[in-house]
Design brief:
Helix content is 84%, strand content 0%. By secondary structure, it is mostly helical. The protein folds into two domains: 82 residues, no CATH class; 44 residues. Helix 1 crosses helix 2. The radius of gyration is 24 Å and the shape is extended.
Length: 126
């Protein structure tokens, strides 16, 4: 029953998100503003107190479900909106950025550790 309620809530939020996006395209007011206003109205009309609804057991039960749904939606949207030609065109620069970032982070970590060891803050076993 909890999963069905969660799916209904998720569906309503998605519909409101699409409506908010439509309003954003017309008025340039971000859709999150409309979702926040809707939440305030629903809370005031139904006398819902968020602190009374936040049962840790319920949130722990549905958090993994919502996390999985969010990942699926984000990855699906990313896959749909990916331009494969642009991806291959930008891959060499992205690879260069990744490798150089890793190498610089690695070197910075070594410098910090050696500096801390030289000052006696930490002991490195030989």
């Amino acid at each position: 029953m909890i999963v069905i309620s969660a799916l209904i809530i998720l569906g309503v939020i998605m519909i409101l998100g699409f409506i908010g996006n439509f309003i954003f395209n017309r008025t340039q007011i971000p859709s999150i503003v409309w979702l926040l206003i809707f939440g305030l109205i629903v809370g005031a009309v139904f006398k819902i107190d968020a602190f009374q609804l936040a049962y840790p057991e319920l949130l722990m039960t549905i958090s993994s479900f919502f996390g999985a749904i969010a990942i699926v939606i984000i990855l699906f949207d990313g896959g749909i909106n990916t331009d494969i030609y642009q991806l291959f065109k930008g891959a060499p620069r992205g690879l260069l950025l990744t490798v150089s970032s890793f190498c610089l982070s690695f070197l910075a970590t070594i410098i910090v550790i050696v500096g801390l060891a030289a000052s006696g803050v930490i002991n490195i076993p030989h």
